[in-house]
Amino acid sequence: LSRLRPLLDDAILTDPPSTELFEVYLATLEQLSPEFIGSYAAEAEPYARLLTRLLQPRFLESFIEDRSRPIALRALAVRHLNSDRTHTRLLARLTQPSQPLPVRVEAVRSLGLTPDEEAGVALLEVAVGRSNPAHLRADALLGLARQPVDVVPAAIALLNDPSAGVRLEAARHLRSVTVTEEARAAVVAAMQTLGGEETARLHAQLAFAVGSGAADHPATPDAWEAALGAAGDPETGRRVFFSSASACSQCHIVDRRGGDLGPDLTNVGRSKTRAGILDSILRPSAEISPEYQGWYVRTADGRIHTGRQIDVGSGGKAELYVQPGAFITLEGVEEYGPMPRSLMPDGLETNLTVEDVRDLLAFLESR
Question: How many CB atoms lie within 10 A of CB 99?
Fold first, then answer.
């Protein structure tokens, strides 16, 4: 029904904007492309679901740069840009102060996903710029953990930043990278001068950076419940989720960002309580959904490979679904079967402070 195309741009004007509706909008445009319509009419594939669906070239870029579009929708469009180097330059430009803040936020978060020197330079500029909003600077520091640029000196300096959120993310960054002995000494010296109410929290993060690790954690789920106490901060918890320390986003997606080896957690707060989420973290093998059953394959060289889906063929070959979102082909298969435990390893909470877990729960519960 191509004649209805002019109505679509009005159909997405909801307040507040709907992420789900925007995704349906993009999917509808893919099916209204001349290429799809032609392939459908020609029955180019035996099933319509096998036909290629693509947006018109540069549609997203044009949508983002169209200032007549609502800012919130332009920000949603940023999430759909490919998280690879093809859009690094555009994303870097979208972080500039001349852009609307919601667009800048999404651009900073997307830049942090792909290791790239140009992305690192743009993120560092945001992180150290005190005229930028504190939450944007904190997000930039989070993204810098994946970038091939050395920002350790800048992170040490930011431990004394006026913003508590920036100080915390600077400490978290320092625990996510390898520091030299000189930098380690600088971190130790900074720890001795830190002040303010969050001193203990900063010290707990920096203890990982200098190799002393975290303090003793609660030993049981009940002890964790007692130690966590009141609800944490969801925004800080979002950064915990996407940090390298938690490893959550390596296997789970939130708002189209992350890995898909585990369940999508975008709306996890609809199906699990705070206690249920905590139990999933502390005891990941207690409940495993069938569609996320882990499989192992042992090959002739003695190596064991694990993944989420398996397709065993003839000739001693098998395909296994692994990160980052692709099947690998294994030859010389000698043994395979379902894993007795979850793909999610035990003990991930030991990489986090108690405050990190509290904030992480607040974030997931808010979804």
Answer: 19
User: Please, where are the H alpha helices in the chain?
Assistant: 5-11, 19-31, 34-41, 59-65, 71-79, 88-94, 101-111, 117-128, 134-144, 152-158, 164-176, 181-193, 199-209, 221-228, 234-241, 248-251, 274-282, 354-366
pLDDT tens track for 121-164: 999 999 999 999 999 999 999 999 989 999 999 999 999 899 98
Picking from 65, 75, 61, the residue whose alpha carbon sits closest to that of residue 256 is 75
Q: Quick check: 173 and 145 in contact, CB under 8 A?
A: yes
Phi and psi (nearest 5°) for 211?
90, 5
Are 341 and 204 in contact by the 8 Å Cβ rule? The answer is no
Q: What is the pTM of this model?
A: 0.88
Q: Could you tell me where the beta strands, DSSP code E, fall in 259-358?
A: 295-299, 304-307, 310-312, 317-322, 326-331, 333-338
**Residue 362: alpha-carbon gap to chain centroid:** 16
